[in-house]
Design brief:
Layout lengths: L20 E7 L7 H4 L1 E6 L7 E11 L2 H7 L5 H7 L7 E2 L4 E8 L11 E4 L2 E2 L5 H4 L11 E2 L12 E5 L3 E3 L6 H4 L3 H12 L11 E5 L4 H12 L3 E6 L2 H9 L4 E4 L15 H22 L7 E4 L6 H7 L5 E4 L12 H6 L3 E4 L5 H12 L7 E5 L4 H9 L7 E5 L11
Parallel strand pairs: 11-12, 11-14, 12-13, 14-15, 15-16, 17-18
Antiparallel strand pairs: 1-2, 1-4, 3-5, 3-9, 3-18, 5-6, 6-10, 7-8
Helix pairs in contact: 6-7, 6-12, 9-10
Bound molecules: NADP nicotinamide-adenine-dinucleotide phosphate.
Length: 414
């Protein structure tokens, strides 16, 4: 085969032919800041798969909040963190969701072969970590990282390098763009709702879902519904609330109707505390009204963090669980411990998912039980625009994708 230097976006080389360089939307430290200007297209040497890895020709990439953080360079400077760990590259190619075609495999790869149509999940880890070798959950390992955020060579490029265990069959019912949109948020939601027994969603369980029309929330609402639970969404405004209801939410609360958000006041300040408690009680009452009965949520699906945790702990049912995977509004969340111990509630951290949970969630999507909720598809050069919308909370409901090898949002296999 001739040696190719590079191809244009949307041009597919012959199967297995690897251009020397690839087009990528690249973040560099000197561009850290607003996402719209942090991502710039560059030609970068195409990486080679090492043992246990695969090179995937990216058809479409998903847009996630983590590369808003990568663009900003905070709370973690991902490039500096990797350089400290011994990697040489002074750039970041983000992207933690992909659909594509396996283009090459490294030694020892048996679960996929060149030509397979796949989606990638974003959990990577060192299989030789003693914790994993002893049967520990890999995503809890100290070696676990999020591909395309904590690692380089993500999906905002023509080729991405992944650990082969990240790859799962692409659901045939989906376009390339839709297939790139769901795994990061969906598998995270799946673990939050299924991974922490005994607090797994059972039929008729009531679940409060913050941001019920967002990336995580849209997946959570559908998972709860598919498992027979009763999802109640919280959104900013009726348009987003109606969207959550179309996905299966029983009802929604508009968080703009309340003002008690943020840190808890000092419990020694009776006036301030009572004022906060009034807001939290009003929220709880509104929750019962939407549900149609006086039942508190057995599971609260949390990710806003600082702004909402006090309310989440307050409204969670006795013996229930607040499960959290992010702190988008901040990390200094105040917990009134009285509610935690007297009412025996659980505050559980959760982070992405393991291979089995990703595979189980992928099957829910393939069976049509969960829709990826692809709302908008962007051209490759608009990776920064998509992340800017997300940064400003002005993005559409559901999940967004970027076309890389695929020609349009509808293109399917073949
Ligand atoms: P998203 O699509 O932007 O959805 C987040 C939703 O949160 C928004 O739709 C918004 O809905 C709601 N929200 C915004 N400000 C809020 C506030 N002050 N109070 C309550 N709700 C608020 O983002 P996403 O993809 O769901 O991700 C959300 C967070 O989870 C991000 O920080 C992301 O990095 C993190 N995450 C973590 C993992 C993990 O593995 N740990 C995985 C995926 C995502 P309304 O304005 O309608 O309320």
């Amino acid at each position: 085969m001739d040696v190719l230097d590079a191809v244009d976006i949307g041009v597919m080389p012959a199967l297995g032919q690897i251009p020397k360089r690839m087009r990528a939307m690249v973040i560099r430290p000197e561009r850290y800041g607003e996402p719209r200007s942090a991502f710039v297209e560059e030609l970068i040497d195409t990486p080679e798969p090492r043992a246990g890895e695969a090179l995937v020709y990216v058809m479409a990439a998903g847009v996630n909040y983590n590369n808003v953080w990568a663009a900003l360079g905070r709370p973690v400077d991902v490039i500096a963190a990797r350089q400290k760990a011994g990697e040489s590259e002074a750039f970041h190619i983000g992207g933690s969701d992909a659909s594509g075609i396996v283009w090459a495999v490294g030694d020892g790869v048996e679960n996929v072969k060149v030509g397979d149509h796949v989606v990638a999940h974003c959990g990577v880890w060192d299989v030789n970590d003693p914790w994993i070798r002893d049967g520990g959950d890999p995503i809890v390992s100290q070696t676990a990282r999020i591909w395309g955020y904590e690692t380089n060579w993500g999906s905002f490029a023509q080729f991405t390098r992944v650990q082969a265990h990240q790859l799962l069959p692409k659901p045939e019912n989906l376009s390339w763009a839709a297939a790139a949109a769901y795994m990061r948020v969906g598998a995270t939601a799946y673990r939050m709702l299924n991974g922490w027994p005994p607090h797994v969603v059972r039929p008729n369980d009531v679940v409060l879902v913050w941001g019920g029309s967002g990336g995580l929330g849209s997946q959570a609402v559908q998972i709860v519904r598919a498992l027979g639970g009763i999802p109640i969404a919280v959104t900013s405004g009726p348009e987003r609330g109606e969207f959550a209801m179309r996905l299966g939410a029983h009802g929604y609360l508009d968080r703009r109707d309340f003002t008690h958000w943020g840190a808890l006041p000092d419990w020694r300040d009776d006036n301030a505390y009572n004022e906060w408690a009034k807001g939290a009680r009003a929220f709880g009452k509104a929750f019962w009204d939407v549900l149609g009965e006086r039942r508190n949520p057995r599971i609260v699906f949390e990710h806003p963090g600082e702004s909402t945790i006090p309310t989440s702990i307050f409204v969670c049912d006795n013996g229930g669980m607040v499960v959290i995977c992010a702190g988008t509004t901040g990390y200094l969340a105040a917990v009134d411990l009285r509610y935690l111990w007297m009412r025996q509630k659980r505050l559980q951290g959760s982070h992405f998912a393991n291979d089995e949970q990703c595979a189980a969630f992928n099957e829910m999507v393939a069976r049509g039980e969960v829709d990826p909720c692809l709302s908008r598809t962007f051209a490759f050069e608009d990776v920064g625009v998509a992340h800017q919308l997300m940064y400003e909370n002005k993005h559409p409901e559901g999940n967004m994708a970027v076309l890389v090898g695929a020609r349009d949002a509808e293109q399917r296999d073949g």
